[in-house]
Amino acid sequence: MKLYELTYLLSPELSEEDFNNNTQKIIAVLQEEGGEALEGAKPVRKRLSPPIKKQRQAWLGVLNISLNPEKLESFLKKLKSEPQILRFLITIKRPARAKKEIKPRAIKKIAEIPQIEKSEEERKVELEDIEKKLEEILGKI
């Protein structure tokens, strides 16, 4: 059996009690097909944009179900024959993946990073070049 999520819209003319009765009908059809309703959400009245079958509002219901994939086709046909169902959508629910443990990246200590050492003469040449540039800049002021 696979896990599915059934989301459906029912006619807005129904009361909340009628909505619950229609949900029980859907569950009965599911059980006829050998499926099982696992959990459902509380019905919510939603405004539709754009309208569906000339209805601007509808009851929104969600059921998590388990059903054999071979029986899914006949279950869908039975849902389509229900006059109170404006629309429905069935999606496959995948089990949540276990989060991978994040390993901290190795951070090298400054002492471990190889330093490029300059000779004494190279440092003196760099300092002399810097001093000349500074004199040029300050002399222009």
Could you please describe the fold and organization of this structure?
The protein has a domain at 2-92: Alpha-Beta Plaits (2-Layer Sandwich). Helices cover 34% and strands 31% of the residues. The protein is built from three helices and five strands. It has helices at residues 16-32, 72-81, 120-140; strands at residues 2-10, 36-40, 44-52, 55-67, 85-92. Strands 1, 2, 3, 4 and 5 form a five-stranded antiparallel sheet that branches. A hairpin with a 2-residue loop joins strand 3 and strand 4. The chain starts with a strand and ends with a helix.
Characteristics:
Alpha-Beta Plaits, 141 residues, alpha+beta, five-stranded antiparallel beta sheet
What is the element layout, followed by pairings?
Elements: E1 2-10, H1 16-32, E2 36-40, E3 44-52, E4 55-67, H2 72-81, E5 85-92, H3 120-140
Antiparallel strand pairs: 1-4, 1-5, 2-4, 3-4
Give the structure's gist in a few sentences.
It is built from 3 helices and 5 strands, in the order βαβββαβα. It is α+β, with helices and mostly antiparallel strands.
CATH fold-level assignment of the domain at 2-92: Alpha-Beta Plaits
Q: Over the alpha carbons, how many angstroms does the gyration radius reach?
A: 35 Å
* CATH homologous superfamily (4th level) name of the domain at 2-92: Ribosomal protein S6/Translation elongation factor EF1B
Number of strands: 5
Structural class: alpha+beta
What's the CATH C level of the domain at 2-92?
Alpha Beta
Distance between the termini: 85 Å
The count of helical stretches stands at 3
- Regarding quaternary structure, what we see is single chain
The shape is elongated
Q: Average the pLDDT over all residues and give the rounded result.
A: 83
CATH architecture of the domain at 2-92: 2-Layer Sandwich
* Fraction of residues in helix: 25-40%
- Describe the biggest sheet? 5 strands, antiparallel
Low-confidence stretches: none
